[in-house]
Amino acid sequence: MRSLAIVSTILFLLAQADEVLNSDHLLQRGKEEYRAARYDAAVDDLRAAAAALIGLDERQLYIDTGRMPSLPQFEEALVYLAMSNAKLGRDPEARDAVERLLSAERIAPTYKTLALERDAADFEPLARRLLPEVPLPANDQLAQLGVAPPAPRPQPESAQTAERTALARAIQEQPVEHPLPPVMPATHPAPAPAPTAPAAAAEPQQVSLTTKLKQAQKAAINGDADTATFLFSQIASASNANRSQIAAAATGLYQTSAYIEAVEAFKRLGPFARGEADLRYYDAVALYETGHYDEARKQLACALPFLEPSDDVVRYRMKIEQTSLQ
User: Same domain, yes or no, for 130 and 274?
Assistant: First the structure.
């Protein structure tokens, strides 16, 4: 029995080493294919590398510890994936890679210190062209190599204050980054909500979660995404949160582009009920943004019959369906 346990342990460690080697090998091969102008092959390998670098184990480690050691390699894969797609004239796919990198920066600011090489010089101009409204910090290594422009000078405090005010007003007028998809009337009436207790009988903890939810929503409106994500995550994982509060927190995480946390929140929400096509759609987008393409396709397929084809829905439908076919 002891020998069997030792062999099992060795096999487990070898499997883990193979997985790390596989993602590292895919990343390195993708970079070499980019340098050799084999852009189609580079896209395939870099997309696979990115998916392997934020798999289930990495996401669970992040949830448990708040750390994701594979983040630098993941962002490097996205840098070369964006450039490879751009070389093929696929600006929507290149923009998607840049957006995913910016979402990853929410976990920990990493791009600035990536050990990028001279062949990555096209990335920052590409990111500015595709997403001019979202500033990306200059990479230190590219700046030292003399192939990246210096970081923009900070604005005066008064200008920063005016910018934050304008951003808050814009968010108030259109509260989410992705417009909410209009939901068609359900073919079957949604179940009646459970009766709620009178306000006087509410437990203090439930009131605390309601207050925290309002604080999170206010932080999101004011453009404080970090605070909003932190509060929404607390609500979604609270043991005393009811289904309505979890749904609101999951939606808030989706709206602030905290896709990793949103996936976990929607998972805790459990099976979706009739009339919750909007929640299914948010879950599908979060699953897609975290590399779970098959699950995203299934959720989107369930939601589509009840959604009006807004620009946002059509855009993500094309992204998810194209990815699932590759």
Answer: no
Q: Do residue 163 and residue 264 come from a single domain?
A: yes
Q: What is the DSSP letter of 119?
A: G
Q: What is the pLDDT of residues 273-296, one digit of tens each?
A: 878 888 999 999 999 999 888 888
Cα–Cα distance measured from residue 105 to residue 79, given in angstroms and rounded to the nearest whole number: 13
| pTM, rounded to two decimals | 0.46
Q: Residue type at 289?
A: E
- Give the end-to-end CA distance of the chain in Å, rounded to a whole number: 45
Q: Is 196 helix (H, G, I), strand (E, B) or coil?
A: coil
Same domain, 67 and 102: yes
- Compute, in degrees rounded to 10, the torsion defined by CA atoms 139, 145, 151, 153: 160
Q: What is the dihedral of CA 28, 292, 109, 103, to 10 degrees?
A: 120
The one-character DSSP state at 304 is G
Q: Which domain holds residue 42?
A: 2-145
Q: Tell me phi and psi for residue 192, to 5 degrees.
A: -65, 140
Rounded to whole angstroms, how far apart are CA atoms 291 and 253?
Answer: 17
CATH code of the domain in which 48 resides: 1.25.40
Q: Are 287 and 316 in contact (CB under 8 A)?
A: no
The model's pLDDT over 191-201, given as tens digits with 9 standing for 90+, comes to 555 555 544 44
Cα separation, 93 vs 97, whole angstroms:
6
